[in-house]
Amino acid sequence: MMSSTKNGANQRRLTHDSLRTPQMRRILASSFIGSAIEFYDFMLYAAASALVFAHVFFSDLDPAIATVASFATLAAGYVARPLGGIIFGHFGDRLGRKGVLVVTMITMGIGTALIGVLPTYEQVGVIAPLMLVSLRVIQGFAVGGEWGGAMLIALEQAPAGKRGFAASFANLGAPAGSILSAGMLSLFSLLPSEQFLSWGWRIPFLASFVLVLIGLFIRLKVVESPLFVELSAKAEERRIPLLRVLTKSPRVLILGVLVAMSQLTISGMVSVWGLSYATSQGADSTFALDSKVFSAIAMFVTAILAARLSDKWGRRPVIAFGIILAIIFAYPALLLISSGENWFFALAVVLAQGIQGVILGPLAAFLAELFPTGVRFTGSSVAFQGASAIGAGFTPILASTFVAAGGVMLLGAAWIVVLVICGTALLIAPEGRRRDLATIS
Question: pTM (2 decimals)?
């Protein structure tokens, strides 16, 4: 126990250069590459739900209804993310961060690869979409635990003045995974339509197996978080983490969910619904996927810059700036998407995801700094994954409903109202840049 305490004290005295040590570089690489692989799998499904699944798994339905049904399977994965955050957060807070990360990666890899070999509706009928939904739930369950573990194992070993940047490596996995998934699907979409819908879309899903092996090799070399090691001998911190979050930290949990929704509604609105709607209005699907590659690069760059700035100025000012930009750009983005023009869609998605990166960069550290070490995995995971389920999971369905009811103007008004609520929650939430992780209660 004395050794554990000493390790924790040493952790809190890390210097500015600690991010450059071999072990810290390995931790950041594991956080980034592992998350990139997990989000490659998760976002690959999102792109395929917009372009493929309505034709393959819901071919008996009217095209408009098939699109909604495809988005419903997408939402199933987002609904499963909070459950993954709760279950994996429980074990991550009680047994350690590292072991959870290995399990989530294996689970995600198996689920994604199996999607690549599913039979179609024409082959087995309703069993095909049922199997698709089941595997999507497995994906959501796995990524629900991945994000919290990957983020915390970096944040809890970083010096206080670098926590925002270190934690962002888990978030940077999202745009990196989007780049890889959109690029892979775009490559195979160059095939004739019949071949692409028959077998071409399956190859990117099957490729997940190889990526998972690479990620596991890196992840197994990472050491456990010293803050968790220091905590592990304290009996009072070993209770059920979820109950402690709900009873002792309900306010910051709700605030965390609302703030995270600001970023995740952009993802669901532009990257998923926008892709489907733009192509239905005449935009070329391959061009749209290529645009998503460049938009993910924009998000990657702005997320890095925003994370760096959050270590200097604080999490709240940077996230607030991103929310304000999102409010200003809401209507222009929807008008560009609804035009059906290739370059207008490209402009909308690149700018929107660039803005999304401004919020995404500091978000991991912001959420982690709301909760004490004993429940940090559970609290931050439930906040982020709860926001994912609400903000990204149901946004495509709700967006389609609003457009059908009143057009893009009604959709834009609803989106702005949500962003204003998120911004209000941000102003109420505490700033965590200068908080000592070991003393948060």
Answer: 0.80
